[in-house]
UniProtKB/TrEMBL annotation:
Keywords on record: Membrane, Transferase, Transmembrane, Transmembrane helix
Primary location: membrane
GO cellular component, one term: membrane
Name the UniProt record assigns to this protein: Bacterial sugar transferase domain-containing protein
Family, similarity comment: Belongs to the bacterial sugar transferase family.
């Protein structure tokens, strides 16, 4: 049985292991050039120099470099196999990694008694070359990893168009053809369905599947010919996937058109793990307290910048909606002009002050909210809380919008790091509907790993704004 998620994760694992192997081989190559020993030379001496003296301290560098590659998006399944300007992207990341390596060895880790001047220079050269060769070599392999295949979609209109566009224009799925796409209500008779292309793909060992929102027979249970048209291909190797699960695995958000009371009861109403909630609260307290204390260093400078800009109040404390509709007031450095009305956020919004643009770009305006995390008003990760009056308006315009308040809101969230308008507030009802789709996905799938991914993606987003990643 073809498993989309498992295969995507396997490809990411292959990339990660290949990157680690590239780093290890680069270290071996640099020591070979530096000390003129080979793998088949004096075994005991090679073992000591390579493993004991160098591999242990460099392994910490490897882990930090892998983190930087992750933050730069090199393990995203949407870029596997077709990343454009690979050399340019790797150069930018390698500069950051080189700085990390220099700081690591010459500032933070005198413990290892290792200041590898020549070795480090050689290693930086070899590691870039091997990483580039590995990534360039695996492009065709990973691009073709899904194999040839065909898909037939049956689903709601908006999500149907998204999937067709993704599989028609995204090079990541270039070997999988969309041979048909229909809304369920368009299928009136067996002649409206042509699965012959799927059957041909399956006959030669390719991937062939129908993606449908429900049990395929349910909408057509009174039309025997249509049911038979779907039933017979399973004996020829055609598979059937849940539209909801397939859509979520591709876009990592809930299919908004399928969300109704039944969907919510099935996917959202189950209680979360008490262990997860307790551990998350513990992490919130530890991180918010430590980061909050460190952040106090920046407060005098931020206050000075705000006062010099327009002389207005330093903090902006609007009333927002928290878990289960409870109101609270988050602490936040003011970034908008005094008395600015609450409305949709715009690009180059004139309400934002000069100091505010800088604070928003660097996310320094969010620092005081670490104390809201410590107090328990919000969590580090969760749906972003809305201003109270605005939230009530959105609940009237967007079905099930109130579901976001079932869990504690967050300083950052899945929508903030995943939506096209990354890091910005939605500027329309339509963008807010899409934000809800991401929030529902998070509420349904929240876990330690997803929370960690959100935190890392948030770090990447902030560094991108500053200019570390582009």
């Amino acid at each position: 049985m073809y498993n989309w998620n498992v295969k995507s994760k396997f490809l990411v694992l292959v990339l990660l292991l290949g990157d680690l192997l590239s780093f290890i081989l680069a270290l071996w190559a640099s020591l070979t050039v530096r000390f003129f020993f080979l793998p088949y030379g004096s075994y005991l001496w090679s073992y000591r120099v390579f493993l004991e003296d160098h591999l242990l301290p460099f392994s910490l560098i490897f882990l930090m470099w892998i983190l930087v590659l992750y933050l730069a998006g090199f393990y995203s399944t949407l870029v596997i196999g077709y990343r454009l300007s690979l050399a340019q992207a790797l150069v930018r990341v390698h500069i950051i990694n080189s700085v990390i390596a220099v700081v690591f060895f010459y500032v933070f880790l005198p413990y290892f008694f290792l200041a590898p001047k020549a070795n480090l220079i050689l290693y930086l050269i070899f590691s870039f070359a091997l990483l580039f060769l590995w990534r360039a070599w695996n492009m065709p392999f990973l691009k073709n990893a899904f194999g040839g295949g065909a898909l037939y979609f049956i689903g709601p209109g908006p999500e149907l168009r998204e999937l067709v566009a993704a599989f028609s224009h995204n090079p990541y799925y270039s070997n999988i053809r969309v041979v048909g796409a229909k809304r369920a209500e368009e299928i009136k008779s067996a002649s409206d369905i042509d699965l012959s292309a799927l059957e041909r793909a399956a006959s030669v060992g390719g991937f062939a599947a129908v993606v449908s929102p429900t049990s395929i027979g349910a909408p057509y249970q009174h039309n025997e010919a249509i049911v038979r048209k779907f039933y017979e291909p399973i004996f020829r190797g055609v598979q059937f996937f849940s539209f909801q699960k397939f859509y979520e695995s591709v876009f990592h958000k809930a299919p908004a058109s399928l969300v109704d009371e039944a969907w919510l009861l099935e996917n959202i109403s189950s209680p979360s793990s008490a262990i997860y909630d307790l551990a998350k609260r513990f992490v919130d307290i530890i991180i918010s307290l430590s980061a909050g204390m460190i952040s106090l260093i920046f407060y005098p400078f931020i206050i000075l910048v705000i006062k010099l800009d327009d002389g207005g109040p330093v903090f902006y404390v609007p009333e927002r909606i928290g878990q289960n509709g409870r109101k609270f007031r988050p602490f936040k450095f003011r970034t908008m002009k005094v008395g600015a009305p609450v409305s949709w956020f715009e690009k180059d919004d004139p309400r934002v002050t000069r100091a505010g643009r800088f604070l928003r770009k660097t996310s320094l305006d969010e620092l005081p909210q670490l104390w809201n995390v410590f107090l328990g008003d919000i969590s580090l990760v969760g749906p972003r809380p809305d201003v109270a009056d605005f939230a009530r308006e959105l609940e009237q315009k967007i079905p099930y919008y109130k579901v976001r308040t079932l869990i504690k809101p967050g300083l950052t969230g899945w929508a903030q790091v995943s939506q096209k308008v990354k890091g910005e507030n939605p500027s329309s009802v339509e963008e807010t509907k899409e934000r809800l789709a991401y929030d529902l996905y998070y509420i349904k799938n929240r876990s330690f790993l997803l929370d960690l991914a959100i935190i890392l993606k948030t770090l990447h987003l902030v560094l991108s704004r500053i200019g570390f990643f582009k």
